[in-house]
Amino acid sequence: MLAHRRLALVVLVAACLVPSAGAGRALPVGVYGDVARFDRLTGQHTDSGLAFIGWDQGRTWGKPYDYFLTTLGTRPHIALQTDRGGGGGISPRGIALGQGDAHLLGLAQAISDSGKPVLLRPLGEMNNSKNPYCAFTPQGRRRGSAYSTTWYRRAFERIYIVMHGGTAAAMSARLRALRLPAVSQDVPANPYPQLTIVWNPLAVGEPDVRGNHYRDYFPGLKYLDAVGNNYYDFSGVYSFTRTTGLYKAYPSKPFVFPEWGLALDDPGFVRAFAGFVRSHRRVSFIGFYNGRTGGRLDLGKKPRSLAAYRRLIVPLSR
After folding, report:
1. Which of 282, 230, 256 is nearest to 25 (CA)?
2. How many angstroms separate the CA atoms of 116 and 113, rounded?
3. Helix, strand, coil shares of the chain as percentages rounded to 5?
4. What is the pLDDT of residues 159-203, one digit of tens each?
5. Whole-number Cα distances in Å, 251 to 7, 225, 232, 246
6. Rounded CA gap, 289 and 298, in Å?
């Protein structure tokens, strides 16, 4: 959702993407919040989680990589952020030029060692100005050149190549073809779908200004495994028109909803969301953002929406 949720745990059946429920297969589903409570409320079963991990977290600060990969269930989902412990962060330019390679190589090694299928969501909602790697401020002004959409695309390409691993020679050859610096060490291969890398813009930029469209940040089909969109109902006004546009823009890739949720007791939104999922066969998983117990997004406080979720969403997972 927003960049300040650094360490939120989100239950999410993730990484190894499967055909949607519309194709006659169970759809992976998940939830952020108290897993056991949500399952009791809805009758849903979830078996994996999401952590928002800052830059170098797991290597030089915070809990180690294997903590997350062990505690996030059988299909961990990691949202990779740019903030560093103690303040500050790395820019897209710094990532693209290899200044964060130690983190990428360490995380790639840990993912391989875990033996688990992993969903990795690097620098998500990049066209949301609340995130420090967005090219624009909330006032619609451009950030410094190190945060341009060009450097974002280069950073994402580097993340994709390094995280999928291989020999240093093979990765370096791909990087040099992009006019990016080489890497210095091998890392075990993490092929798709064992590792699924999701490019996750918002369907509408925040702010919605020229240059902050999702296409401005698009790294190319060779550098992503799935396309994602986060969608929330905060006001009771919603439309899936823009989401449909994003869905149709990249028809060769699976489509995912890493986060969706609602702040109102609005069963109509749940019905509309379920209808979209059922009618768009490339939707491969959905993750409900329930938030903290008793909080603004808690489905337990929304009886009509909870009933709609039980009736319309839970069957998609069976």
Report:
1. 282
2. 8
3. 35, 20, 45
4. 999 999 999 999 999 999 999 999 999 999 999 999 999 999 999
5. 32, 12, 23, 9
6. 8
The DSSP annotation for 270-305 comes to: HHHHHHHHHH-TTEEEEEEE--STTSTT-GGG-HHH
Query: Cα(123)–Cα(144) distance, rounded to whole angstroms?
Result: 17
Count of residues for the chain?
318
Distances (CA, A) of 200 to 128, 197, 226, 239: 11, 9, 8, 19
In the structure, what pLDDT confidence band is assigned to residue 8 with cuts at 50, 70 and 90? very low
- Both tokens of 202, joined, read 């918002």
DSSP code for 19: -
Distance CA 99, CA 290 (A): 35
- The pTM (predicted TM-score) of the whole model is 0.90
Contact between 131 and 121 under an 8 Å Cβ cutoff? The reply is no
Give how far the C-alpha of residue 244 lies from the chain's centroid of Cα atoms, to the nearest Å.
18
CA angle 6, 10, 14 (to 5 degrees): 120
Which is it for the CA torsion 100, 102, 2, 285, positive or negative? positive
d(CA 309, CA 203): 23
Q: Determine the Cα angle at 144 with ends 180 and 203, to 5°.
A: 80
Cα-based angle 232, 233, 237 (whole degrees, multiple of 5): 135
| Cβ-based neighbours of 225, under 8 Å, separated by 6 or more | 17, 192, 193, 195, 196, 197, 198, 253, 254
**What does the pLDDT look like over 80-130, one tens digit per residue?**
999 998 788 999 999 999 999 999 999 999 999 999 999 899 999 999 999
The alpha-carbon radius of gyration of the chain (Å, integer) is 19
What is the overall mean pLDDT for the chain? 91
Query: Helices H, strands E: what count in the chain?
Result: 9, 10
Q: How far apart are CA 111 and CA 151, in angstroms?
A: 26
